[in-house]
Write a structure and sequence with these properties.
The chain is α+β, with helices and mostly antiparallel strands and 354 residues long. The protein has a domain of 220 residues: Porin (Beta Barrel). Helices cover 36% and strands 39% of the residues. The chain has eight helices and eleven strands. An eight-stranded antiparallel β-barrel has the order 1-3-4-5-6-8-9-11. A two-stranded antiparallel ribbon has the order 7-10. A hairpin with a 4-residue loop joins β4 and β5. α1 crosses α3.
Length: 354
């Protein structure tokens, strides 16, 4: 009997425990039915739409249906939340970059176009367009300078050297003047120069005879016009090297002769010898290659150059005579420095247009 009582008590306790557990489950389900999720707006909207399209009679959902709906909503929350968080994380850098304030504000307003008068003013203020190396540039100028010139084989005109000489003969040059006008053209690193100069080529000889202690001096000079054509190369801005040629066109030849003897008779003899030389010696057109190195300042227009000319052909011609003068090939040398001033024609035309 005692064993049966114990079994009955155990059964009662188990039944009461099961009933209490069922009561707790039922109460928990009812509590979850009353709570509605705030963030799930989509599900509430769909339920509302479904209720509107259903029958007009009020329909009370069963607890089992409500449980299924709540479980589905919970599953949707669990599955959708990580996706939403991932999208927000991916888009966060772009939003931060867009929201970051720029240090220098960009002016997005359309700027008004300058008027025609303002365009002309802007173009005039840019000197790079006037002196642009890619454009054709023309300039004209004047120049003047001095140099040293000499004429070769002057002593051979008066002496034949057939016998052993008993004298000493020295040939010298002289300082001469040179000046003229010229024009230049430039395109990029190449250019050309065309000019006409007045120049003088001269030389002298000094003969000293030891037996008679006599010193004789003879000088020859040619005044000429020299048209010149040079081609320039500009390795640097303003600095140029040029090569070309010129033609020496003499229009006047002067010959002088004098000795160390004194007295009226000796003076008359010297004048007669000088007259014979002038009748015998004449000048020829000479062809002379030329080299030049110079620098031009485009801001001031000043130009400085060093030039060397070599007379390749015969400058002096000895006519047939009875005085013992012989024909020789008389070349010439000239080296000098010149300073010029140029006017840029492109700049002048640009100022007229403005």
């Amino acid at each position: 009997m005692t064993d049966n009582k114990k079994n009955n008590r155990r059964k009662r306790a188990a039944i009461t425990a099961i009933l209490l557990l069922l009561a707790l489950l039922i109460g928990w389900d009812r509590c979850t039915e009353k709570e509605e999720p705030k963030s799930d707006a989509g599900t509430s909207a769909t339920t509302n739409i479904a209720e509107k399209h259903s029958d007009k009679e009020p329909h009370k959902p069963q607890p089992s249906v409500i449980r299924q709906k709540t479980k589905r909503n919970r599953r949707q929350k669990v599955t959708e939340e990580p996706v939403i968080i991932q999208k927000a994380v991916e888009k966060q850098p772009e939003e931060e970059i867009e929201c970051m304030p720029s240090e220098q504000p960009v002016n997005t307003k359309p700027q008004p176009e300058p008027k025609k008068d303002e365009q002309h003013v802007v173009e005039a203020e840019e000197p790079a367009e006037v002196f642009a190396p890619s454009k054709h540039r023309f300039a004209i100028g004047v120049r003047a300078g001095a140099g040293y010139s000499s004429i070769t084989s002057l002593g051979g005109m008066t002496e034949s050297y057939n016998v052993r000489p008993q004298f000493t003969l020295k040939e010298k040059g002289s300082v001469v003047f040179r000046g003229g006008i010229y024009g230049t053209w430039r395109y990029g690193m190449i250019g050309a120069e065309l000019g006409v100069d007045y120049m003088r080529l001269s030389g002298s000889t000094e003969k000293h005879t030891a037996t008679t202690d006599l010193t004789e001096k003879m000088s020859v000079g040619c005044d000429a016009l020299a048209p010149q054509l040079m081609f320039r190369f500009y390795p640097y801005d303003g600095f140029y090297m040029s090569a070309g040629a010129m033609a020496v066109l003499p229009f006047h030849t002067s010959v002088g002769y004098e000795t160390s003897r004194t007295g009226t008779i000796y003076r008359q003899q010297d004048e007669l010898a000088a007259k014979h030389l002038r009748e015998t010696v004449s000048s020829n057109v000479q062809f002379a290659p030329a080299l030049k190195i110079g620098y031009t300042d485009k801001n001031t227009g000043l130009e400085a150059a060093v030039e060397y000319d070599y007379g390749a052909t015969d400058l002096l011609h000895t006519n047939k005579n009875e005085y013992g003068y012989t024909e020789r090939c008389n070349n010439s040398h000239y080296i000098g420095v010149s300073i010029g001033y140029t006017i840029d024609l492109n700049k002048k035309v640009q100022n007229k247009k403005d």
